[in-house]
Amino acid sequence: MNGSDFLGETCQRFHLNTGNIFMDAGIKTLLLFLILLVTGFVIRFVSQMITLVIAIFVGERASLLFCNYITWPGTVHHEFSHALAAVLTGAKVTRISLVRHGDKLGEVNFIARGGRLLIGFQMAIISIAPIVCGVITEALLYSHVLPVCDSRWKYALLLYLMISILLHMTLSGQDMQNLSKGIVPTLLVFYVFFLIAGFFDLF
């Protein structure tokens, strides 16, 4: 099931379809925003719980070492998610860092391009990219890699990779700032998208 099918079925299940394409587009836009918001909070909660459990068994310092350094593949996934979203939305990536600098485990520098609406859209999409790409990657690992694991070390490696990605799917403070700058233009873009889709009865 793709994202559009999911939104359509959710609206039908909870009787959110009004028959008015303008209202339906608004409902789907708010529903999409709510799903992303809830997903972000759930991921942050699970990440914090994993960190807490590790700290209980091995101590806080070892827990931070594990979450910040040993799970480095998650940092790589996080930063390249930002970079991919930047390229796809038309921004220019100027630098990618995958090593710690100060309080940052990694960093992607980019230049947003276009008008005010496009720049706001770029800022928001780039900021939430680790969540979106993380969910997609975790789903692919679960559905395509897990079934072919046939030994303990492969299961262990897959678990390590999935935990690494999960721990780094959360948004940084800078990500939240960028999201706040572009949330209104992004909602407007998705509203227009759902409006056009509703007009042509695409879903």
Give an overview of the whole structure:
This protein is mainly alpha-helical. The protein has one domain (3-199). It is built from 7 helices and 2 strands; from the N terminus they run H-H-H-H-E-E-H-H-H. It has helices at residues 3-13, 21-58, 60-70, 72-89, 116-145, 152-167, 173-199; strands at residues 92-97, 107-111. A two-stranded antiparallel sheet has the order 1-2. The longest helix is centred in the N-terminal third of the chain and has 38 residues, at 21-58. It is globular and about 55 Å long. The two termini are 12 Å apart.
- Please tell me the overall pLDDT: 86
Number of strand elements: 2
Q: What's the number of structural domains?
A: 1
**How are the strands of the biggest sheet laid out side by side?**
1-2
Tell me which oligomeric state these chains represent: single chain
Morphology call: globular
Strand content: 5-15%
Radius of gyration, taken over Cα atoms and rounded to an integer in Å: 19 Å
The main sheet comes to:
2 strands, antiparallel
Order of helices and strands: HHHHEEHHH
Q: Low-confidence parts, pLDDT < 50 over ≥5 residues?
A: none
Short key terms for the protein model shown above:
two-stranded antiparallel ribbon, 2 strands
Write the layout of secondary structure elements.
Blueprint lengths: L2 H11 L7 H38 L1 H11 L1 H18 L2 E6 L9 E5 L4 H30 L6 H16 L5 H27 L4
Antiparallel strand pairs: 1-2
Helix pairs in contact: 2-3, 2-7, 4-5, 4-6, 5-6, 5-7
